[in-house]
UniProtKB/TrEMBL annotation:
GO terms for molecular function: dihydropyrimidinase activity. This is Dihydropyrimidinase. Keywords: Hydrolase, Metal-binding. The keyword Metal-binding applies. It comes from Microbacterium phycohabitans.
Amino acid sequence: VSATGRTAADVLLDGETIAAVLAPGSTLLGHDLAASVDTVIDATGKYVIPGGIDAHTHMQLPFGGTSASDTFETGTRAAAWGGTTTMVDFAVQRAGERVQDGLAHWHELAAGNCAIDYGFHQIVGGVDADSLAALPGLIDEGISSFKMFMAYPGVFYADDAQILRAMQVAADTGLLTMMHAENGPVIDVLAEQLIEKGKTSPYFHGVARAWQMEEEATHRAIMLSHLTGAPLYVVHVSAKQAVEQLAWARDNGQNVFGETCPQYLYLSLEDQLGASSEEWGDFEGAKWVCSTPLRSKHEGHQHHMWQALRTNDIQMVSTDHCPFCMKDQKTLGQGDFRAIPNGIGSVEHRLDLMYQGVVTGQITLERWVELTSTTPARMFGMYGKKGVIAPGADADIVVYDPSGHTSIGVGKTHHMNMDHSAWEGYEIDGHVDTVISRGKVVVDDGAYLGTKGDGRFVKRGLSQYLI
Ligand code: DUC
Ligand code: ZN
Ligand code: ZN
């Protein structure tokens, strides 16, 4: 199955590369194909798809006095289990630090530890003359995209003037600007006012982060993109009004793109409000504290998001994988939701969760591949090597079995380094059978055969969506 169609075929791998895609019954130099190769993987009755590409993960991200609980080792292994063979994580530059130093540190964290191939986007946490001057040099380093935050004042925040200057550099160089589009200063006031009224539980995280402030920031980013001519990629879109802004800009001919995440397609603010357990009481809801937040199911965001995936108003699905354990991490925010580290872990479940959209008739099989592999490859300058099953591409392949029925997250059966799951009890049709990463079988029918260090840094080119 590719982004453009489906066909019965044999895929011939040679070492780390795809050598040929052949019609069934083809021979190799006159010999029967199966007799001419070392290994045969029988995929009869299953889908053979390009390995998943998760273009938004945060292994070991420092956040609110702690760090995301998956290391590059544990998080990439979990990704492999779930059929993701490439991830693009975020190198972090903090205000006052050199961009080059931030990047070097993230290379150190990842090198030799990853189970799958990985690249980096650059978070620019402090936009100043030095960091602006460093941006063009990222392209030679294989980093063709950078992220700024309109949220989190005092941490990663960039104001409009800073965004303008960075987008001007992006327009000149071909770097792709990624935006966390939420109006942070307003959200911080709303959060403070809720706390003053004694509204301290996790649910109020989502109340403070009002959709109006996602719509507003998305619009502002779109206008700055229009003004500067820099293409824009809005990450983790959760509000339907933000989707409408993106659709409007695209209808006006702007080169803007949006990504959503499985949590915004399935989970809602009401799940969080209703969550309670013997162990955590109403702090149970902290499991689903992420930003942008889960939205109210009464406002139609989920339905609109699925629709946007179908109509291409939203182009990609990444996870924003940013796990924190309840014990010792999420609990930092007991009594004050502002101190709950933001993030949900899903890197292992993205292909499965998105396949449910095929099962329920919301997206086609081809669109499933496009959203989870082919568009991420093109968007972030890896297509040809990644995102496609074709001669010359890396042999990153998943055999997906549409049969079977499994519950994910139950009893911590996942492989992410978390003491809970945001997906506890989710019922999945289908499962990942075999995962091949650059020619090596790393997951085979419930067994993990890879090792840390299998994954290599991917030097990315410019976005293939640039005009
Ligand atoms: N959102 C999250 O949920 N976690 C990390 C950073 C972000 O923007
Ligand atoms: Zn973000
Ligand atoms: Zn993120």
